[in-house]
Write a structure and sequence with these properties.
The chain is an alpha/beta fold and 329 residues long. 58% of the residues lie in helices and 9% in strands. The chain has 15 helices and 5 strands. It has a 5-stranded parallel β-sheet with strand order 2-3-4-1-5, sandwiched between helices. α3 packs parallel to α4, α6 packs parallel to α8 and α9 crosses α11. The longest helix has 21 residues. 37% of the residues are buried.
């Protein structure tokens, strides 16, 4: 079995292994291979199959030499669900992949079907990571990379505003970046994002949190009700509230210094340090403790510990806003 690993840039490597559960990234991995194959041969034959469409014996037919020696891309989705006999056939194929054929295996990772993962890696397959983005910081990185890949610049505040407005769906984030870069000249800033996605931004969980930690109870409640009416999950709102209060607590207990130094110490981007500094006026240590307890109670309420998740969130928002004014009071 071949052991030389294919270059990540070699889109026409004999085998490409796309590993992860992020549908957008998996689809992009497939599209890139298909585009490269068709750029090499416009008549490339593309076969896109799920595991149940590749029964034992089918691989030999699909990879047999063509009369016209045309290039072929064979895509196998959900490779973890392949029949045991089909897995054996693929492992044998990896020993001597056919020329002019690119095999693309899509696998979510994990234990199920790990044998085919190990075999493809041992064979030197080109591997593309397609992990599910579960953290806000990962989505922020994704947006920055999207702008960079399109040759455009966007301010950190604009990227954050876009994530706040759109949410966790990478397809929607990618579409929003594409629209902004197509419609707007020059650097994309927070004002531009606000013009395009004002309604969605106002409905975001982070807007609720920002208004609450600033002590603006009425505006926070208005944003909360709008968020819930537009389908924002309550658990996302409690998460945003927790992040907002914790940021206040971290910065209030940190040593003074430049935003860049504090950013390294606290794990926040410098622009966020400036924002939190403005928000923390009026906060006291007792206020932070009170707000954290309110968030914990709301979190329990939205996760089944109470009968009315909306009331639990409203109560938390009001408590946090009051806590933000304790020093001023």
């Amino acid at each position: 079995m071949a052991t030389k690993k294919s270059s990540p840039d070699d889109l026409l490597a004999p085998v490409t292994l796309a590993v992860g559960q992020e549908d957008l990234l998996l689809d992009r991995a497939v599209r890139e291979v298909v585009a490269a194959a068709r750029a090499s041969d416009a008549d490339t034959d593309v076969r896109d199959l799920t595991a149940d469409q590749l029964p034992p014996g089918a691989l030999a037919e699909l990879t047999s030499p063509s009369l016209f020696a045309e290039r072929k891309v064979l895509i196998v989705r959900n490779a973890q669900d392949l029949a045991a006999d089909t897995v054996k056939e693929i492992k044998a194929y990896l020993d001597a992949p056919a020329e002019e054929i690119t095999l693309v295996l899509l696998h979510p990772g994990g234990v199920k079907g790990k044998g085919i993962l190990d075999a493809a890696r041992k064979a030197g397959a080109r591997e593309v990571a397609c992990p599910k983005t579960t953290k806000p910081a990962e989505r922020l990185t994704f947006v920055r990379q999207e702008f960079r890949s399109l040759g455009r610049s966007a301010t950190p505040e604009a990227c954050q505003s876009l994530v706040d407005a759109i949410g966790s769906d990478l397809r929607e984030l990618a579409s929003a970046v594409a629209q902004l870069t197509a419609d707007v000249d020059g650097t994309i800033d927070e004002a531009v994002v606000g013009r395009y996605y004002k309604g969605r931004a106002e409905a975001s969980s982070f807007t609720v949190a920002d208004r609450a930690v600033e002590g603006r109870a009425a505006e926070a409640l208005e944003a909360l009700r709008w968020s819930l009416s537009t389908g924002v999950a309550p658990v996302l709102i409690t998460s945003a509230l927790a992040q907002g209060v914790r940021a206040i607590g971290k910065l209030s207990s940190a040593r003074g210094g430049r935003p860049a130094d504090l950013a390294r110490e606290l794990g926040m981007p410098p622009w966020k340090i400036d924002r939190v500094r403005q928000q923390m006026r009026g906060w006291t240590p007792d206020g932070v403790s009170l707000a954290l307890r309110a968030v914990a109670e709301a979190d329990a309420g939205v996760k089944g510990g109470g009968d009315d998740p909306e009331y639990a969130l409203e109560k938390a928002v009001v408590t946090i806003a009051r806590a933000a004014r304790m020093r001023r009071a």
